[in-house]
Specification:
The chain is an alpha/beta fold and 203 residues long. The chain has 3 helices and 9 strands, in the order αββαββββαβββ.
Length: 203
Amino acid sequence: MSHSIQTLEAALHEVLGDKIEHLDSALGELTLTVAPVNYHAVAQTLRDDARLGFEQLIDLCGLDYSQYKDGAHSKFTDAPRFAVVSHLLSIAHNWRLRVRSFVVSDDVPVIASVNDIWNSANWFEREAFDLFGIVFEGHLDLRRILTDYGFIGHPFRKDFPTSGHVEMRYDAEQKRVIYQPVTIELREITPRIIREDNYGGIH
């Protein structure tokens, strides 16, 4: 573990105390896991406390942990299905931090927005809402950002069908784009394996 990572780890324990659920170090990076009830307050502290100084949010995404690596996140007691993960950067201290918070409900996952802390969270949170259905409470413009108008479902959820629910095409008679049920027939594709001794003319 590098000196800066050790310094950051010590600072996190000093500043956040019992708000830390887990603090894991792997591959030269720290991952801080906090309860959703503390997510917004911890984010505020991470930005404003001079000992931490995370001025920038460089990424935020949703995660669906269902069927994830045969339950690799089971160390988190009764961990919900969805999580929000943020990647933070401190220019002043030249260090990075990954922050994860498991969202309370699997049916309607809701967590606080951090757009009022880092305005770069705006489109990231809209993307996580669009693709995973995670609702960011307090976001002032939470609407889909990648899928089409009227799209049903959230395509990055692991139970979303790979072929989708509907398809669109241009109808020449109606002279407009129409939506219809998916016509792709689901089938299992087994790759062909060639076992010929002289395949390709090599002797």
